[in-house]
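=== Structure Prediction Worksheet ===
Name of assembly: unnamed complex
Input type: mixed (protein and possibly other molecules)
Chain count: two
Listed entries:
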Amino acid sequence: MKIALLVILAFFLSACQTLPVITQATSPEKNVSVCPNPFLKQKTTLIHAIEVHMSSGIKSAVIGITEADPATRAISCAIMTAEGMVLFEAIETDGFLDIRRAMPPFDSAHFARNMIEDIKLIFFEPRGKIEQIGFLPSGETACRWRTGNSDTVDVLKTSSGLPEVKRYSGSGKVKRYIKFSGLTGGFYQSIELQAQELASYTLFMNLVEARPAEN
Amino acid sequence: MNLFQSHRKNILFVSCFFILLLLNHVAFADDFEQVRKNAAQIKTIQADFIQTKSMKILNKPLISEGRFYYAAPDSFRWEYLKPLKSIVINHKGQTKRYIYSGGKMVEDESGGAQGMKIILGEITSWMSGKFDQNPSFKATLKEGTYTQITLMPVGQNMNGMLQKVIITISKKDAAVKSVNIIESETSSTIIDFKNTQTNKNIPETIFQDIE
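=== Predicted Assembly ===
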């Protein structure tokens, strides 16, 4: 009985993680004045070769097409196979999600919503307000956003200068961890997204093409 | 519906691509009976291909490139070189799909290969030139400046996924010039073949080794 209580207590303690502390620099001139910004600056169409690694060990690969407009936060996206078959296509404008095509296993509303949220987290600056600016104990520059849905988003710059994004749940658990690398021509060539869900997954996105919208 | 079924549809979609290469020797056929006779003469095919994908979301088509090998009766290798490396190989009754992951080709275990087995019967049917005997498609042959074969999906299997496949063949050199896979009003996939060689020896390792 005592063991069972200990297990339950351990479970709840692990579920109630706390966010890493952000501290100010000791001297004012070393303080962070500009937050890391790996996000899109203008409406862009991006094509990525995406490796999907599921926690079950299954690996797959698809082509991802995203048209993202940071000004309006509108997203159009599609997933297709190497052979060109479109498995999923959706548009989100003003919070309204329009799923144009959804083949299994991409045919649940939950999948579509999660995918759009992942795309926004990768390409758009977080919504809400910046709550803290400073440094994590591990040394990264950090800007912390409190978003409207009780989640917290940290936009980080590592010691090697590469940006990262972490989204925490209300209980402080890391739900998404994004790493950017290979900045060329204003676009990151490689993006890794780790998602912690009931069925966790990791996406390795390699940029094939980025086309800024013509004005 | 699950991943397996999705792959099955994908493989059916992929299968459309195989048709065109099998038509290299059937360009002057007056009817499907002649198509079957001519197809029986094909022992091997190898060709490069360029795939042009058009979609509303793309303001410029996405170009993919690859290589195709076929050896009678049922060995094939369908390989994309870029932008997304992938290979589907069928050999001696075994069908496998590979993807590029972690710097090397690894087997795709998400169900695609199983879907391939199911659809293999249909591919074999096409390889025998039996375009008008496949219950999944209604085939029509039209002679004009070019020989054109149109495949229309029948039944519910390809609903919402594929409207039709148009195969255009040059009468001049009897080679398939293009295949246009029309998925919807705003989405299509055009495959252009080049450097096509028929009945030239293909090493068996092509259907065994993935690197």
